[in-house]
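Try it yourself: sequence plus magnesium ion, in.
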Amino acid sequence: MSNSLVSKTVKTFSRLSQSLRVQLLCLVLLTLFGAIGFNLYDSFWTADATARLVTDRTLLASARVIAESVRVDEGGNAQVDLPPAALEMFDTGFGDRVFYQVITAWGSLVSGFPDLPLPAIQQAGEDRAFHGVEVRVMMLDHPVVGLPNDAAISVTVAVTHKSQYAMRRQLWLADVSKQVVLVLAASLVTILGLQWGLAPALRLRDAVRERGRNRLDPLPEDMVQTELRPLVHALNDHMERVQNQMAAQRRFVSNAAHQLRTPLALISTQASVAARETDDSRRDEALSALRTSTRQISRLASQLLTLSRAEPGSRRPRKDATDMSNAAREILEAHAEEALRRRIDVGLEEAGPVIVEGDGTMLREMLVNLIDNAIRYTRESGRITVSVRQVDGNAIIEVEDNGPGIPEAEREQVFERFYRIIGTEEEGSGLGLSIVREVVDGAGGSVLLGEAEGGGLIVTVRLPIR
Ligand SMILES: Nc1ncnc2c1ncn2[C@@H]1O[C@H](COP(=O)(O)OP(=O)(O)OP(=O)(O)O)[C@@H](O)[C@H]1O
Ligand SMILES: [Mg+2]
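Structure, out:
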């Protein structure tokens, strides 16, 4: 056999062994064959016992007829006048041979074979060998009137096994044929039952397979049996989640496009104005506005990119050991110039390294957005304090400012994408806190907005230290 044929056969077998239909059928047939095997074994021995019982009854009847025919002659000797019926009752057409023996209580042979083997107990059949053939032997003691003291004579009759074995075979075969019919009927019922029982599951498979890419409406749960309904339920739940996710994605793309369109239209107008302007100072004004719009749009693009990276599943999970104290110091240093320009007093409270395992780049992005917000939304000559510490296996990072804060009613909404508080004058795309939430969720932590002393905002981030 070629290698490909072998591997094909192995594949077919492994596929078949995984089929529910084949598994159930094998289980039912194995159980059935086991039961039938035991039944056939049992019925063989029942047939054997029945055939032996019938033979023994015939032997006893024959011995009785012979015993009844024993007479005592004038000389006081027992004589047998053998009636033909005594031996004819064994003539069942199987060619059995019959032997008999009649002896007196004192051991003298009256008639028959002198060396016929005698069974140990009378009136009980026994299997013995006689002249090289297997025989069934039965002995009966019978008192004879006329013999001294009405002594008994012993009549022994033996017959070969042919008829007994034929009867046993017939009885057993009748049972075997019944069992075969039973197996065939049970297999047929099982196959039909499986076909019928699995039909709803196959219909479900086809219904799922035939659906278009965008069809996500729920499948009817009653199309399958009760046991399979949780599966349909789970499938429907999953489709609903996918549907929600797709809707969110669509909303996000349309929001992003909208957010990009406004500054782009502005850039186009500002560019035309600058091109047309002949007055130098007015042109500088238009160019400066153009720069601002360009910066805005490039900020939006980079925030969009960071958000897409922060989304679950978009980056390979990482386990960088990031010292949050050090990261906070570096980010504050990077923002020092802007803080200085706005005369904002920046402070860092830390007491040594606080190591968090996770995606180092994204953890930094989170800190950048929190510190950027604090600097941007705090009035000139304000104060910002960043603190990093470790409490009960968690890294606690707090960014506190004395700016305007966020009203309690909006503390949940600001985490939504593109959400900005009405009246916020500073530039921004409304994605910073969404990024913070995605990063914190991805790291298995939590983020809380609260009111700092003096009305500013205090953001508390808790990250588990793994
Ligand atoms: N420290 C803060 N003090 C007061 N208001 C804040 C502070 N941080 C955020 N906000 C408010 O929450 C809104 C959402 O902040 P978020 O960082 O998500 O977006 P953004 O700063 O507007 O834009 P960007 O994507 O550029 O960060 C801001 O528009 C601002 O109104
Ligand atoms: Mg921000």
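One thing you can check immediately is this: Residues 299, 303, 369, 373-374, 377, 401, 403-406, 414, 420-421, 424, 428-434, 457 surround adenosine-5'-triphosphate (ligand 1) (CB under 6 Å).
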